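Tokens as discussed.
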């Protein structure tokens, strides 16, 4: 009579373990529950030439699906187009911004208009507010905790603090961008890879069990370290 009891106990333990795993997976996915307003159609074109319903959806892609650089930025606030539709619909700018190309624009509108008109391969993004100062920065950020996550995986108390750091410490770039509002996720490297053995050789001469393990290494290294790319599919 003991054997059936032991068998039932093992089955019950497996059920509990599976339930726990599902719960853990749900917790891991909780960071992707951004809660964007689906009724808001403030269309934006991302730096990947993809149209998003609003900025929230673009930030959600950064947070949930992009573990490492390059992160998305807003190219211009409307539907993406491949035609060079130049239009001068921006009012006289009173709030200048410094672009990632170290050019001062009268306003964010003028920067976005240039992206729309020229359709550059790498759209210009806002490096910081104010004129390009090249190290001579005068930022007065209010102490309001409205955190944003930077592309360096560092949480800033506000977008103003991020822009201020760009101006002071990175006068010539490359600049940190806002990848999503809120604090940075604390486990960016928590990537679960299968044990399937489909070896690939990285350009760092290391054999990875499969593509997922290579991607995981890139995610954990962060944007400041050169990403490993696949040299060929086989052991090195």
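Sequence:
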């Amino acid at each position: 009579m003991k054997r059936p009891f032991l068998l039932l106990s093992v089955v019950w333990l497996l059920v509990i373990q599976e339930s726990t795993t599902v719960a853990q997976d749900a917790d891991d996915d909780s960071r992707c529950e951004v809660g964007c307003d689906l009724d808001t159609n403030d269309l934006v074109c991302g730096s990947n030439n993809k149209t998003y319903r609003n900025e929230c959806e673009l930030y959600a892609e950064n947070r949930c699906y992009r573990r490492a650089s390059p992160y998305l930025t807003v190219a211009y606030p409307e539907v993406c187009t491949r035609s060079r539709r130049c239009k001068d619909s921006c009012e006289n700018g009173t709030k200048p911004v410094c672009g990632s190309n170290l050019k001062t624009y009268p306003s964010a509108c003028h920067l976005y208009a240039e992206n729309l008109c020229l359709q550059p391969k790498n759209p210009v993004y806002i490096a910081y507010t104010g004129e390009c100062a090249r190290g001579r920065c005068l930022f007065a950020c209010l102490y309001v905790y409205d955190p944003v996550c930077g592309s360096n995986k560092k949480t800033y108390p506000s977008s103003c603090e991020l822009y201020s750091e760009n101006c002071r410490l990175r006068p010539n770039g490359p600049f940190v961008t806002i990848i999503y509002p809120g604090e940075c996720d604390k486990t960016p490297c928590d990537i679960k890879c299968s044990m399937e053995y489909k070896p690939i050789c990285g350009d760092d001469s290391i054999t990875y069990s499969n593509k997922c393990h290579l991607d995981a290494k890139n995610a954990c290294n962060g944007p400041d370290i050169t990403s490993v790319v696949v040299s060929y599919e086989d052991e090195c």
